[in-house]
Design goal:
It is built from 5 helices and 6 strands; from the N terminus they run αβαβββαβααβ. It has 220 residues and is α/β, with parallel strands linked by helices. It has a 6-stranded mixed β-sheet with strand order 2-1-3-4-5-6, sandwiched between helices. Helix 3 links the parallel strand 4 and strand 5. Helix 2 packs parallel to helix 4. The radius of gyration is 16 Å and the shape is globular. The two termini are 23 Å apart.
């Protein structure tokens, strides 16, 4: 991957396509409104699943190291970060974190905030689950929603994120959006589409990007 390469159609003959989609029209309008108010401020919340030395956690560690220390909330302790304030970027294991007990993170998302989680099926549906629906293990198919018990990217958008990535089906970890490419690129002024496409190891696979493609925080 070429982290600093400039996107141009002559060099990369593709179109960077994102989706203006969410639970309903009001959520989509809110995403667009927030993208127009985006500014380069706030915290990048990076939440590991424990302190194990393995690829997903190491990509999260790298993301934290590539961002200004005073703009990062980093946690590799057992447990999950909830109820964070002034969040502009977020990366974690999502519902795959065994310590995750709440469907809602309870974040205060700033306009322009983006999120990515290592979750296999978080873009499987745009339908809204019942408010009392909870994540369930793979063995509990009776309580699946949309064919899975995992979290949904659209929950993040409904809660206040401006953009997010997701997967329609199992991408395997190595094909999930890389937070160590995504968050530093977005912080340094690339727009939402460029940042997510830079972070996706494979195209035309399982990954989906939600958000206004031209949303940008501007240069730090």
């Amino acid at each position: 991957m070429q982290r600093d390469a400039v996107f141009s159609h002559a060099r990369f003959p593709i179109y960077l396509v994102t989706r203006l989609a969410a639970f309903d029209l009001n959520d989509v309008k809110a995403m667009i409104d927030r993208s127009l108010a985006a500014r380069n401020r706030g915290k990048f919340v990076i939440d590991l699943q424990g302190a194990e030395d393995e690829p997903g956690n190491n990509w999260l560690r790298n993301a934290a190291m590539l961002l200004p220390a005073n703009r990062v909330i980093f946690d590799d302790r057992p447990g999950v970060l909830y109820d964070q304030k002034e969040v502009i970027g977020y990366a974690s294991w999502g519902s795959n974190d065994t310590a995750r007990t709440r469907r809602r993170l309870g974040f205060q998302w700033l306009p322009g905030a983006i999120a990515t989680e290592y979750v296999s099926t978080n873009a499987r549906t745009l339908q809204r689950p019942p408010e009392n629906w909870k994540y369930v293990p793979w063995g509990d198919k009776l309580h699946f929603f949309g064919g899975s018990g995992q979290g949904l990217s659209t929950d993040l958008l409904h809660e206040g994120a401006t953009g997010a990535s997701g997967n329609v089906y199992e991408p395997f970890l190595q094909a999930c959006a890389r937070p160590d490419y995504l968050l530093p690129a977005y912080f340094n002024g690339r727009n939402l589409a460029e940042s997510f496409y830079l972070a996706l190891p494979y195209l035309s696979w399982q990954g989906v990007v939600f958000g206004d493609p031209l949303c940008s925080l501007g240069k730090p």
